[in-house]
Amino acid sequence: xxxxRYMDSPVGRLLVAGDDAGLHLIxxxxxxxxxxxxxxxxxxxxPLEEAVRQLEAYFAGKLKIFTLNLCLDVTPFQKKVxxxxxQIPYGETASYGEVAEKIGNPFxxxxxxxxxxxxxxxxxxxxxxxxxxxxxxxxxxxGIEVKQALLDLEQRYR
Length: 158
Hints:
Elements: E1 3-7, E2 14-19, E3 22-27, E4 42-43, H1 49-59, H2 76-85, E5 94-95, H3 96-102, H4 109-117, E6 130-131, H5 144-157
Parallel strand pairs: 1-4, 5-6
Antiparallel strand pairs: 1-2, 2-3
């Protein structure tokens, strides 16, 4: 059974969904993917309390590393990329090329970008910390403004 709830955040209302095994997704209100729950999901607060608690602590500048069980339905390559993203320190950024090198495939920066774009659990898996090779902000599922807001938040509480 997949449960969902909404939470208010400094970057807008987030849709948070998961089950008893862990967190499955976070969606932004103005993202590329709808922030509506699937028809078979059940609205419930309890199964997602810890995820919401940690997200609230992150937005308050009190949490820098998430300790949630994550349920990822991704390819092995995407999993490699998402694992590498979790190693980018709070308040820092890395380029797509640097992430590609980190996973042992230095010519895969485009594929890293595609895997980054498919991240089902943004913020917790910090895809907002990945920037262009010249440091510019590039695409983000919640919009560039949200990406900038998340990076600014981390700089403020670093």
